[in-house]
Specification:
Layout lengths: L7 H9 L7 H12 L6 H13 L12
Helix pairs in contact: 1-2, 1-3
């Protein structure tokens, strides 16, 4: 099992570089996370957790919305 991601930017980049097909909306969301250091809202954290889970990737460490 992989260790959790340390931040949302690293998780977003892993999803973008993972080779899986993403919707335009998901790609836009992940691109925003990759460049914007602003903390995520609970809804954003939940969506990121779902995308990571669907891709078989670990969650973001400390994310209470896993």
């Amino acid at each position: 099992m992989m260790a959790p991601f340390t931040d949302h930017r690293t998780a977003a980049l892993a999803l973008l570089n993972g080779g899986e097909r993403l919707t335009r909306k998901a790609g836009s969301f992940l691109g925003q996370l990759a460049v914007d250091p602003t903390p995520m809202t609970p809804a954003q954290a939940e969506w990121l957790a779902k995308l990571l889970d669907r891709s078989g990737l670990p969650p973001v460490a400390g994310d209470e919305h896993e």
